[in-house]
Amino acid sequence: MKKTRIGIIGVGIIGEQHLINYATDDRVEVAAACDINPARLTEMCDKYGIPNRYENIGRFLDRDDLDTVDVCLHNHLHAPVSIEVMRRGRHAYCEKPMAGTFADARDMHDASRKYGRMLHIQLAYLYQLETQVAKRFIDSGDLGRIYHARSTGFRRRGRPFVDGYATKEFVNSDWSGGGALFDMAVYHISQLLYLLGNPEPERITGKVYQEIGMDPVRREISGYNVEEFGCGFARFKDGLTMDIVESWAAHLDGFGGSAIMGSEAGIRLEPLSFHTTRHDVQSDTTFDLDAMKYREGTVFAERSRHYASSQKHWVSALRGEAELLDTAGIALHTSLIQAGIFLSGTLGREVTAEEVKALSKSAARVIPNLT
Ligand SMILES: NC(=O)c1ccc[n+]([C@@H]2O[C@H](COP(=O)([O-])OP(=O)(O)OC[C@H]3O[C@@H](n4cnc5c(N)ncnc54)[C@H](O)[C@@H]3O)[C@@H](O)[C@H]2O)c1
Q1: Which of 124, 342, 359, 364 sits at 20 to 30 Å (Cα–Cα) from 275?
Q2: Is residue 1 very low, low, confident or very high in pLDDT (cuts 50, 70, 90)?
Q3: Peptide bond connecting 97 to the previous residue in cis, omega within 30 degrees of 0
């Protein structure tokens, strides 16, 4: 079996998670890695047996033996590096969020068409068993006419860096573009858009907040300037609506989880449950996901591998074993909703998708180590 040859740029926290996934895929060979931090590069390449190491992105991309390049850099480098990868004729796989602004996400989407290369965005929640089960129910029509979705994500005290985990770039908009809406909401909104068939956003309202105190030393080091909480409401072309609450930090005990409501039934995604009324009696169903997981891994092992994770799905798509989910299209609509919430908060009113598209600007960084 010919192995799919992968190159990875950025072997930090999430880069290593990708390497762990590739290490359990016998169809894959990670042939080269690039990181601007030589100590981290050596550590990761030694640990995962990667033979070719680069600190310079340009020289890394001069290689002509890579089937794809996996971009695990901070948000404002997603667009310039992914576009450069595709311009040089490689299929690009990029971490979430798609980019730090809607304009940059759109440039990535356009570049995929322009250069005729596949673009895949890491949207982990699409591969959860909960999502796969919910999709079966939705696609079979069990929910009836779907009219509203609720996107929620909750951390009580979990802002990156200032509350502990992860690096300072997450909380500085010069690197990230935003906070909780860019980091976590991406997963929850994209999960719902996928389940709903990626409807087109038409109008958005919302606001973002930073109200809760934090460690002053870490605030200073990071230049913390992003939202810890965002809320919004989106209207889609076909009349569907979605409300959004996303928190990195809030004085509350939870939001209750994302959900989809239809005329015949509703689904809650976390934990997964199905709710309906039969013969005039309300009925609530829970699911045995462990049993499903066992069967998926045995009886349906071949099929389930294609959707086992974002990385495995990408490898299956590259090899023509599965059709690539439209993660770039879903991530682009997710980015539009995020940008709409920010713009609405700034203008103090509901905004149209056309306004967001017209006003969004690139915040992409110049790639420091391209030449
Ligand atoms: N940390 C997480 O749990 C997590 C989860 C999901 C998604 N992500 C996403 O992954 C991305 C990276 O986050 P992270 O947590 O891995 O950050 P990180 O800081 O741990 O890793 C980033 C890596 O990129 C390297 N790098 C920076 N500039 C570079 C350049 N010009 N050329 C080559 N290498 C360069 C850094 O040296 C570092 O090793 C972000 O977009 C984030 O949203 C992170």
Answers
A1: 124
A2: confident
A3: yes
User: Does residue 303 lie in a domain region?
Assistant: no
The SS3 of residue 54 is strand
Helix (H, G, I), strand (E, B) or coil at 197: coil
From 9, 11, 14, 184, the mutation candidate for ligand 1 (largest count of ligand atoms within 8 A of CB) is 14
Q: Is 172 in the pocket of ligand 1 (CB under 6 A)?
A: no
Whether the Cβ atoms of residue 334 and residue 97 lie closer than 8 Å to each other: yes
Nearest C-alpha neighbor of 22 from the set 6, 33, 9: 6
- Asked if residue 236 lies in contact with residue 353, where contact means CB atoms within 8 angstroms, the answer is no
- Binding site membership of 167 for ligand 1 (Cβ less than 6 Å): yes
Nearest-CA residue for ligand 1 atom 24 is 10
310 lines ligand 1 (CB under 6 A): no
Q: Label residue 52 exposed, middle or buried (CB < 10 Å: 0-12, 13-18, 19+).
A: middle
Q: Say which residue the tokens 């056309």 belong to.
A: 354
Is 322 among the domain residues? no
Backbone φ, ψ for residue 260 (5° rounding)? -130, 135
Going from the Cα of 93 to the center of ligand 1, the distance in angstroms, rounded, reads 14
**Whether residue 161 is found in the same domain as residue 252:** yes
Q: How far is the CA of 2 from the centre of ligand 1 (A)?
A: 30
Number of domains within the chain = 2
- 94 forms bridges with which residues in the sheet? 71, 121
- Backbone Cα Rg of the chain: 21
Q: Is there a single domain that holds both residue 131 and residue 97?
A: no
Mapped onto helix, strand or coil, the DSSP state of residue 123 is coil
Q: Is the Cβ–Cβ distance between 34 and 46 less than 8 Å? A: no
- Ligand 1 and 15: CB distance under 6 A: yes
18 lines ligand 1 (CB under 6 A): no
Q: What does pTM read for this prediction?
A: 0.97
Query: How large is the greatest C-alpha to C-alpha distance in the chain, in angstroms?
Result: 69
Say yes or no: CB of residue 94 within 6 Å of ligand 1: no
pLDDT greater than 90 at residue 302 = no
Expressed as residue numbers, the domain containing 30 is 4-123
Tens digit of each residue's pLDDT (9 = 90 or more) over 54-68 = 999 999 999 999 999
CA distance 156 to 254: 8
